[in-house]
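Quick one before lunch.
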Amino acid sequence: MLPLNLLATVFTAGLAIAASIPPLPGVAEGRPTLDVPTLPEVQAMLARLQGPIISTIISRAALPAESLLYANGGKALTSFIHKTELIALTLNTYEFGSRYDYGSLEYPFTLPAVGPDITTPTNPFPPGRFHQDTFTPNADLLSFYVTTLVPLIEDANTAIAGPGGSSPFYHLKRPSSPVDVDAKYTLDDQLLALLSHWASIGKVVAEVKYRAHVAEFTPLIKSGNVNALRTLLTNTTQEKIVLESANSAAFALATAFEAAQNDPPAIAKAFVSRVQTAVARVYRELIDVTKEVEIQYLLQRFH
Ligand SMILES: *[C@@H]1O[C@H](CO)[C@@H](O)[C@H](O)[C@H]1NC(C)=O
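Model of the 2-acetamido-2-deoxy-beta-D-glucopyranose complex:
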């Protein structure tokens, strides 16, 4: 349940709210049993995240990236994310629980994640039932973000504005160095949470595939055969569909963004193509990181 002592250190007001909330029904006796949907349903959920992911990349590219803000492996960004994650905990409600509860498939970057499931005779976790593991894609995604994505965002921003970047915020005090650091970190935080959620849905993808091929997966899981698991989990036809769809959406959304800005065609063209480059790189990374999520999920499947 809630690490109340953690909240107390930062948000006394939040603590008061959280403390007045009775525990979720059923939590005391054990976790709910969660069965996974069909593969097309899971793919539809991933598709629904495409618009939010790409439009957040575009919104972020409207601001200069400023590599200095991401020094030391994104230390300052991580500390910003930590504060937003603490707020998420204070928003815990009786009816719905919090963003990082069991089964939400949202895993915090800076707080302890929900603990793993343990198979028992009373809950044997039959194929098709979600089994929480300890792996999260967050460290990989944060490192990708800081080292690979920030420079691509910077490129896209300079297409609009030239070196030095451009910001949609209008401050009468200009010209001055950009002061919209919290606006940048807010978008970074939102984008990272979306990417993490996308990749974490890989746990469900893994369970769906395991349910469909129990006899093939079981010996590979038991012998820890990572390469064979990777091969069995890979569907390059489906990957191609996802990459092409992301590319078309990036083109459409970035073109609409540019049309709204009324930029000259050469600038619009450069921005759109740099957004497409960033989105292609993000989706390649998502597919690879998600496969790692699937493999790690399966390796702990019989725990
Ligand atoms: C791979 O993905 C494609 C497209 O979604 C699908 O039609 C095909 O059945 C999948 N192949 C396997 C072996 O699951």
